[in-house]
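note to self — DONT lose this again. spent like an hour looking for the file last time. sequence + predicted structure for the chain T wanted, 258 res
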Amino acid sequence: MRGLREWVVIITGGSGGIGSATARRLGEEGAKVAVLDIDGKAAASAAADVVSAGGVAQPFTCDITDYAGVARAAEAALGPAEVLVNNAGWNVFRPFLKTAPSDWERLIAINLVGALNLHHVVLPGMVARRFGRVVNIASDAAQVGSSGEAVYAACKAGLLGLSKTLAREHSRHGITVNVVCPGPTDTDLYAEYRKGAGNPEKLDEAFRRAIPMGRIGNPADLPGAVCFFASDDAAYITGQVLSVSGGLDHGRLRRRTP
């Protein structure tokens, strides 16, 4: 893809399934990847994976809910960031009435406030340089809802609204802001979702039947979309939301999910 080579990319949640796969792809495209994660050892492993494949990467232990910590990590990164990928996320899988305010606080802190922190820290430099690419990882749950994920879906829907607004505010600064919405993807979060299902095998089958491509997504399905939005190939695209879900038919899923 055009661009990306030698660009500095900050990616949060960089050690997770989608995060680590995206970090590897960014390294393959020639970007310099700052891998931020609350788990320092996992961040180091993900960065080492990028380096072993011939890329450039550096790990940073960072709690994205801590504004000061985010500022320190961004300042210590491999240089001024051309690209920001907000990928970090966390979920708890219960019907809304079985959740507690403490659950809401953590969900909002990680899935929404964390992204606010990153935007607020990184965007000023992009504005000053009049160039930047922001790719936010949301969820199909933000667009259609998802049983057992009410607060998570609300946070991700908030991220969509934030992205569209920032796209408007900063287009004149040469900054694009776009969103990738994964559908069901075989990550640690999906494994937790399965645990909360009364019948995990039936849940898997319901997803497979609702997805025209006939399978759950895997982390390797996402980096292409992320890198596209981050690249010069998407220079005239901003404020857009792309679902990467194998064509998931949510209406059919609702009829079949137990």
